[in-house]
Design goal:
Layout: E1 2-10, E2 13-18, E3 21-29, H1 32-41, E4 46-51, H2 52-57, H3 63-72, E5 76-80, H4 86-94, E6 99-102, H5 104-108, H6 110-120, E7 124-131, E8 134-137, E9 142-147, H7 148-158, E10 162-167, H8 179-188, E11 192-196, H9 202-210, E12 215-218, H10 220-223, H11 229-237, E13 239-242, E14 245-247
Helix pairs in contact: 9-11
Amino acid sequence: MKIFPAIDLFGGQAVRLYKGDYDQMTVYDPEPLNTVRKFEAAGASNLHLVDLEGAKTGQTTNLPTIEKLAKSTGLFIEVGGGIRNMDTVRRYLDAGASRVILGTAAVTDPDFTAQAVAQYGEKIAVGADLKDGKVAIKGWLETSQDTWEVFFEKMQALGVKTIICTDISKDGAMQGTNRALYKELTQRFSMDIIASGGVSSLEDIRALKAAGVHGAIIGKAYYTGAIDLAQAIRLAQAIRLGEGEETP
């Protein structure tokens, strides 16, 4: 299983929002590359980036920062936040992103999603934030007409390879992730499922790995010290040899 430590970008800085509120923002690191170096030192090979300004405006405000991170590291970098047209997809990929994540646009503009997948294949992922049985969009203020099950089926039919799924009720709550949901998704769909939201302990990592989940995003739990990133990565990469015995 792959671990994706996360950075939220605003104004070229690594920040954290309280419950998604832009007015309650904490700057974690004015130079995100410093944080990325810490991720690398812990053994990370993947990075999850969210352009908070992009999510709000649809503009690629943090593109220079993302390009700098891509050029300065050897990490696999996935980027999400307000990607609504092919030009934005191209700009992020040209800047060095390994994969871009379509969120609201995957729900509201299926033709764009289909075009992006047809042109870029596995470099396109979809982000699905689940709320009350549906997919939340537009900053979690609205929800899709379809149930999440129907949405996932549509994405799989389009050829989407990877879905990053967040259970909003668990996000940032530090009360554990929705293990049953991710196990169900992994069993029902052939797409790679990446768990996001509430991954707050090594037990979560162990359970997701056992369920066959492709990856897990670690955000708040890293910044608060609830999860040691190096331990999480070792656990995710471990191969079970026997009862109670694991090795990288």
